Amino acid sequence: MIKKALLNIFYILLLSLVAILQVSVFSAWTGFFASLNLIILVLVFVLFFYNLKAALMTAFIFAIWLELFSFNFFGIHFFSILITLYLINRISVSWLTNRSFYSFILLNIFAIFSYQLLNATFLYFSDFSGGSFLIFTSSFWQSTLYQIVWAIIISLFSFNFMIAFNDRYKPDFLGGKMKSR
Asked: What's the CA gap between 47 and 89, in Å, rounded?
């Protein structure tokens, strides 16, 4: 019981560190490096390699930190993250049923695109100054493209790392052991 509680505390602190790094460090960089969105990448990683319950806990922790450091209406990031999690879970369960590398990449790309689109939509409807819709600007598409490139790069390493250290995802030839003659 104590071991599980300590593991949960460690998990919350680690996710909080990732969220704080996202808000304070990565967003302060310029150009390609400013588009690193670890929050979505970690969310997809947790959903893909663990389960929906852990991904929901991850989404709540990330949403709380993003809302605390955001100057937008409270709930924009929360709903963007939760709807994105719902969408990628539905796609994972319905279409991408195997746990392969291309499924992981496609989930990351879809999660980034849906999060960006949802966030831009919520920001547009919460901005009463009459600004333009973000998806019509080139910076939106450039940022989305950069995030997709980051997702592919990080997915390459994280997927192979997880496969190497987890027996659950080892390839199994035709569902059984090979027979020797």
From this structure: 7
